[in-house]
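Practice problem: Peptidyl-prolyl cis-trans isomerase
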Amino acid sequence: MACFALFSHFAFAGPKVEMETNLGSVIIELNSEKAPVSVANFLKYVEDGSYVGTQFHRVIPGFMAQGGGFDANMNRADTYAPIKNEANNGLPNNVATIAMARTNDPNSATRQFFINLADNDFLNASSRPPGYAVFGEVIQGFDVVQEMARKPTHSVGRYGDVPVEAIVIKNVTILD
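Answer key — structure tokens:
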């Protein structure tokens, strides 16, 4: 694991954020070199505090945990303008990476993100264009994300895979 962490340090040298949830904290290292638009966008939501009180609203074991777009009552959060898809940046959707969520429009990502619970090659632009843009990696606390995937889920209206007990983001802090 130490070798992996050393590799990650060189691959994702950039700002770090700590995301505190009601299940524990996760530290994410962002890659502003390969994903400058996505990182700047994510940090805009961090800096304005608008991730606080949102939840991981879609959690699928063996796939990913998605959050940042809905409050604990499944009310949609306000967004800034959509950003350009950076999925061709060479960063793969591997286990523990964080990527921008989007609709079918490749350039529709706003505030929602997901953390990969597995190597999801089919989300890469090289496998199935246009792909989903990776912009960082969980470097500490991935066990918290894995714990999310062990929680029971249900459907809420048209949304599936919603944790029965909300997994809420309590705070996000820039560490660097």
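Discussion: The chain has one domain: 18-174. Students who identified this feature from the tokens alone can consider the problem solved.
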